[in-house]
Write a sequence for this structure.
């Protein structure tokens, strides 16, 4: 039996810009997100605290795109689950261009960890399972929710969103 592999990406990060929802010819909603994650460590030689920020391209489709566009704003913390995909196209000069993105469609999940309102909300392609502190939006079969999130501390990365230092190339 041939193995097919696993293509699953899970990210928790902050939005680098306000979102814009657009609609493709078939009427489906699409929203592109610039999502920043960061890693912190202490430099062994200087003892100085360092931080590396990594920017990710995330594309939301359908109801997830509409809800994200309505409730999320620059700087909000978001959890996303999707699949990694690389697109290829030719620019106006005929040069091949590539973009690697996390695709979050009806099989994916997006959870607002801040913003929108004060309670976190999970949005996915799943059948809604009402819970006292969460509101679910979904369209796929019910699955069990795992664990609870922890409150993240504010870092340079989250402050960076408020100052507007977000890469804009291709987002």
């Amino acid at each position: 039996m041939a193995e097919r592999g696993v293509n699953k990406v899970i990210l928790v990060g902050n939005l680098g810009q306000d979102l814009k929802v657009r609609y493709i010819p078939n009427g489906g909603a699409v929203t592109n997100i610039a999502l920043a994650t960061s890693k912190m460590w202490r430099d062994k030689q200087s003892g100085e605290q360092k931080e590396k920020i990594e920017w990710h391209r995330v594309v939301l489709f359908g109801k997830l795109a509409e809800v994200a566009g309505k409730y999320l704003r620059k700087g909000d913390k978001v959890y996303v689950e999707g699949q990694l995909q690389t697109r290829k196209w030719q620019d106006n000069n005929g040069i091949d261009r590539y973009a690697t993105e996390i695709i979050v469609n009806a099989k994916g999940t997006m959870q607002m960890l801040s913003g929108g309102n004060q309670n976190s909300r999970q949005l996915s392609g799943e059948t809604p399972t009402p819970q006292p502190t969460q509101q679910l939006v979904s369209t796929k079969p019910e699955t069990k929710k795992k664990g609870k999130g922890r409150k993240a501390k504010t870092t340079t990365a989250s402050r960076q969103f408020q100052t507007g230092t977000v890469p804009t190339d291709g987002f």
Observations:
- The beta strands are 9-15, 21-23, 29-42, 49-61, 77-90, 96-104, 109-112, 121-124, 136-137.
